[in-house]
Amino acid sequence: RRMFPAMRVKISGLDPHQQYYIAMDIVPVDNKRYRYVYHSSKWMVAGNADSPVPPRVYIHPDSPASGETWMRQVISFDKLKLTNNELDDQGHIILHSMHKYQPRVHVIRKDCGDDLSPIKPIPSGEGVKAFSFPETVFTTVTAYQNQQITRLKIDRNPFAKGFRD
Amino acid sequence: RRMFPAMRVKISGLDPHQQYYIAMDIVPVDNKRYRYVYHSSKWMVAGNADSPVPPRVYIHPDSPASGETWMRQVISFDKLKLTNNELDDQGHIILHSMHKYQPRVHVIRKDCGDDLSPIKPIPSGEGVKAFSFPETVFTTVTAYQNQQITRLKIDRNPFAKGFRD
DNA sequence: CCCTTTTCACCTAGGTGGTAAGAT
DNA sequence: ATCTTACCACCTAGGTGAAAAGGG
């Protein structure tokens, strides 16, 4: 399924005439598994993380594009899809349920993106920069644990209009 | 509206590692306006063509891509849209109704596509090749003139399923 | 008279949380 | 007891020709 709300970023400081890929990956925040304690409304550690899943990368569909093009628009990751199926063959990003994750935005100069692939880790080095925003850390679930989250999803997601009062 | 059936082409002979744009434009077949004579089931000349419309180009949304990528797939133009509105600002291809047209497929080496634009004629010269297929000539209408065409559209277009018996 | 525009019911395609059943 | 899966009604978004209304 899609991630909602989606990450949206603005970028500045690119070379307008240089081509870039923009990509997102999602990395574990820690080595823990969590459970939600309803009476305290808190996520609590519930053991160590499950074993790692195959690495996946969401390459923004406008890639590659010039620095000028990227800087002119808000870059939205709303079509990125998540799954908990480790055997997924749709190129979705694979995550464990009940774990904490941090999405990262990557800006990759075109000449450094030759071995960019949805199923390989993002290369690092010169011409590749990563950005992450702590306020975007989230915990994965298969069912919502908390009515405020459910409310937010229903109120804000146009596709959930059928559940609004 | 979309063109249906859509043009679909296969390409061979590209340099696998060279980047290309693929584009389509649609040019008048002659300088005539037509009307359909029902009793003879034929299109007849009905005067000279209306004055030219602003030139538009459909740049295939997978552009630019490598020769390898283009040659691996059937290239479909099903998202190309036509309009008879000369003031169109959606980037659709503008045509006169009741005229005959020939779609053309253009293969443009990336370094020759710098001034490629949806609202400018396709550049010509080295690194740009055009292909047209006489069997794809068509006559534009605002309402179908002929029950065999209506039948073909309803039978073959998934979106017209509601009109099938 | 002939052609065009507008609106509509009916589709395709796919993104929602709810819910009941399944799994561990 | 807790988490997951499969299916569903209900949406968004948009592509069909029919039919009625509009226009020169």
From TrEMBL, chains A, B:
Entries under SUPFAM superfamilies matching the protein = p53-like transcription factors
Report the GO molecular function annotations. Answer: DNA-binding transcription factor activity, RNA polymerase II-specific; RNA polymerase II cis-regulatory region sequence-specific DNA binding
Q: Which UniProt keywords apply?
A: DNA-binding, Nucleus, Transcription, Transcription regulation
Q: Does the keyword DNA-binding apply?
A: yes
Residues forming the T-box domain are 1-165
The compartments listed are: Nucleus
Main localization, broad class = nucleus
GO:BP terms for this protein? cell fate specification; morphogenesis of embryonic epithelium; positive regulation of DNA-templated transcription; somitogenesis
Q: Does the keyword Protein biosynthesis apply?
A: no
Q: Which InterPro entries match?
A: p53-like_TF_DNA-bd_sf, T-box_DNA-bd, T-box_sf, TF_T-box, TF_T-box_CS
Pfam families per record = T-box
**GO CC list:** chromatin; nucleus
What is the protein's name according to its record? T-box transcription factor TBX18
Its source organism is: Nestor notabilis
